[in-house]
Design goal:
globular; Trna Endonuclease, Chain: A, domain 1; 129 residues; alpha+beta; GxxExxY protein; GxxExxY; five-stranded mixed sheet
């Protein structure tokens, strides 16, 4: 079975490890974000940093957040530089997916050990009022 946006995800994860192997652990998230942004752009991908995303409640805009990176208008990347991935980070990326037309999110942690989680929230499950 083929995963949604599988080829693009493979490129992103490979690039995540390239950046991690070059920089290692201990920098601020912004350093990793800037480095990953440059590497993904160098691979010819359309990448937006700190993309403003509006949040709606029952059809009314109630807030906004800024996605660390959005790749090809398809995948939201949430970057962390924490000891490990915790459930709150996973919930955060799921909430981001609920508020956008993106169906796939990658949580990338530049921690003591590099780790990632892939989250999917299909548009067909999203409530649009």
């Amino acid at each position: 079975m083929k995963l949604l946006h599988q080829e693009l995800i493979e490129v992103i994860i490979k690039t995540f490890y390239e950046v991690y192997n070059e920089l290692g652990y201990g920098f601020l998230e912004r350093v990793y974000q800037n480095s990953l942004y440059l590497e993904l752009k160098n691979k010819g991908l359309y990448v937006e940093a700190q993309k403003k995303i509006k949040v709606y409640y029952k059809g009314i805009e109630v807030g906004e957040y800024y996605a660390d990176l959005v790749v090809e208008d398809l995948i939201i990347l949430e970057l962390k530089a924490a000891n490990c991935i915790v459930i709150e980070f996973e919930n955060q990326i799921l909430n981001y997916l609920k508020g956008t037309n993106c169906e796939v999110g990658l949580l990338l942690n530049f921690g003591i050990k590099p780790e990632f989680r892939r989250k999917v929230f299909e548009n067909s499950r999203k409530i649009r009022i």
